[in-house]
Target: Glycerophosphodiester phosphodiesterase
Amino acid sequence: MTHVVAHRGYPTVAPENTLPAFAAALRAGATIVEFDVRCTRDGVPVVIHDRTVNRTTNGSGRVWDLTADQIAGLDAGSWFGPGFTGLRVPTLAETLDLLAPSAAELLVEIKPPATLDEVKSVVAALAERDLLDRAVLQSFDADVVRKVRDVAPEVRRGLLLFRFDAETVELSRELGVVYCNPSVDDVLHGPETMAALAAAGVAVMPWTPNDMAQWRPLVDAGAAGLITDLVGELTGWLNA
Ligand code: G3P
Ligand code: CA
Model:
């Protein structure tokens, strides 16, 4: 089975990393929902991709310079379209509350920098809702992945990378990750690394194949799932 991994929810039908985008992803058949977590100045995990709120809200400034109350006061929908005016940047807690009743797994990307306490607060939010078994915590920053391992060794981990070679395999082993998620091009042009990761028991889910012509080659290359914006389209393609 190939996983349909909803990248920031279903961001072609609703603003990325918002509750309507996650609800739409579930309706469209996502088997895994991916989202991005950063912490506010006062240590509240919120779900937002960029370092700043500038692109996806009507505010400005870096997430870690703003309080949770300040971020809660921003409009995270108008930039996407008039029908989404008034949407908020969700907290991690709100996101997990929405996703918890579903059957989907959670691919939680912790954006660096993340302190040990911040990693602990992400793990705590999952634990409070009994979601640790359904979650994979991933990051582009190996140090963040190490923190996850230190805080909650029982929770599955993933590594995101901009490189895909023998060192990737070695780092994946060292970190004990279940997923190593590289770019589409890396998967399509790295058969040796794909084979070595498979031999090490590490699955691969590339980001972010939004060109449907990429799907067949990626599945044939051994991808366990595709992290895409085209959630409903991928579900339909897999079920055709
Ligand atoms: O899960 C992989 C993918 O989300 C990584 O890239 O920039 O969309 O967070 P980005
Ligand atoms: Ca992400």
